[in-house]
Amino acid sequence: MATTMERRTVIYCGECGMPPEFCEYGPDYETHCKSWLLKNHPTIYTGLKALRKGGGNDENDPTSGADSANAVQIPSEPWTTEERLRKFYEQYQPDKVDGCAAILEKYADREDQLFAALVKKYGAEPEDPYYLDSDDDDGDSDDGGGKKKSGGKKEKDIGDLSLDEKSRKKKRRGAAAKKSTLVDTRIVIQKVFRNKKKAITIIVGMDTVPDIKLKEVAKAFSKRFAGSSSVKDTPAGKKDIIIQGDHMDDVAKMIVEKFKVPAESVFLDIDGQFVSVK
């Protein structure tokens, strides 16, 4: 008896070239991948967002997958500072979860600095489900008496609110409120060996720096290091700069001093760990 094979279509992100399930682990998720996914595959974005919040994906559950976003229960209170830190480490560094209390004690009264540093090192902070109903992508439906949010809460139109009421509306806090500015410009410098001996330096993200021309940047690197330097197109449609030789530290210094890129936006890729040059 012949076996019937099911044909499946795999979707790849038009920005980073990875499947949507892996986009959030890349350096360009907030600046490029998220907007592309919302525009081209909003259902997939909603489903993945629900899974990150613990929505699950049981094939026998009618609320699984894309519809699971509607099944997520919105808590009545936001995470405490310790819960935020635990969720962060559960996603990026599970072996540090048990030490959250000691870390918070060390960073007492400096929690915002702690979370800002963690976001720079690992990536975007996990989203508190308390704020799920205030996201721009969680569609609202008008019930005739104002706006009714997906979490079941009614909200007046923003134009009808007084200044005091507007100031009391829920706002994101800490590193989550700043992440859009933290990742506007993000440059990663990598060292790759070819033929087991020759090293090249790859600059990823230089195209996120405003008001510069990559060809002129590559020319400056070539003159500085007396070697080949070129701009190369990536499969995701972006542009990297390739320099012959191992110049990671000097390249980072040059990017900060000559091209005026903030040091907190420049990272060295050392054995898979992004280390800020700041």
Number of helices: 10
Q: Provide the gyration radius in Å.
A: 22 Å
Query: How many runs of DSSP E, i.e. beta strands?
Result: 9
Q: What is the beta-strand fraction? A: 5-15%
**Pattern of helices and strands:** HHHHHHEEEHHEEHEEHEE
> Which strand order do you get reading across the main beta sheet?
6-7-5-4-8-9
Mean pLDDT: 74
Biggest sheet descriptor: 6 strands, mixed
Plain-language structure description:
By secondary structure, the chain is of the alpha+beta class. Helix content is about 35%, strand content about 15%. It has helices at about 20-25, 30-40, 40-50, 80-90, 100-105, 110-120, 165-170, 175-180, 215-225, 250-255, and strands at about 140, 145-150, 155, 185-195, 200-205, 230-235, 240-245, 265-270, 275. Strands 6-7-5-4-8-9 form a six-stranded mixed sheet. Strand 6 (about 230-235) and strand 7 (about 240-245) form a beta hairpin. The longest helix is centred in the N-terminal third of the chain and has 12 residues, at about 30-40.
